[in-house]
Amino acid sequence: MAQEIERKFLVKGKFKPEVFKSTRITQGYLSSVPERTVRVRIKGEQGFLTIKGKGNHSGISRYEWEKEIPLNEAEELLQLCEPGVIDKTRYLVKAGEHTFEVDEFHGENEGLIMAEIELKTENENFIKPAWLDKEVTGDDRYYNAMLTKHPYTKW
């Protein structure tokens, strides 16, 4: 099984001068139950189908399976998704040997900016840029699947 180990943080400062790539992402959920989420994503001109399992006790690691699918199939599957679509711009920012994925949300999640870092182990050390704010790893409100049901602008 593929394990995803990641930590999530809110963003408080200016990260954009450090961005080396950005991509618009649209995604929806065929299933958003906590035990398994099934996500359809359009990232730029590529489509993806992703299945994620429930997180461990710390919320840092969980099962993840992802497969690239044709763009037209991703567009069709988005029509079958549960209500609520995530629209965001993903920025990539290097920090030491790691790359943070910083998501700036649009639409009903406007104003939310979150950074994620994928790690090899749960205890791996990494550089924390000055623009990182509070850690929200394991806080269900910040999972994209939850943001489709309870958008940030309605908190």
TrEMBL record:
Q: Which Pfam families match?
A: CYTH
Q: Where is the CYTH domain?
A: 2-149
**An example molecular function term from Gene Ontology annotations:** adenylate cyclase activity
Give the enzyme's EC designation.
Answer: 4.6.1.1
User: Which residues act catalytically here?
Assistant: Y29 (proton acceptor)
Question: Top EC class per UniProt?
Answer: lyase
Q: Cite the SMART domains for this sequence.
A: CYTH
Hydrolase in keyword set = no
**Cross-referenced InterPro entries:** CYTH-like_dom_sf, CYTH_domain, NeuTTM/CthTTM-like
Q: Which UniProt keywords apply?
A: Lyase
Q: Lyase: is it a keyword of this entry? A: yes
Q: What is this protein called?
A: Adenylate cyclase
Q: Which organism is it from?
A: Butyricimonas paravirosa
Its taxonomic placement starts with: Bacteria, Pseudomonadati, Bacteroidota, Bacteroidia, Bacteroidales
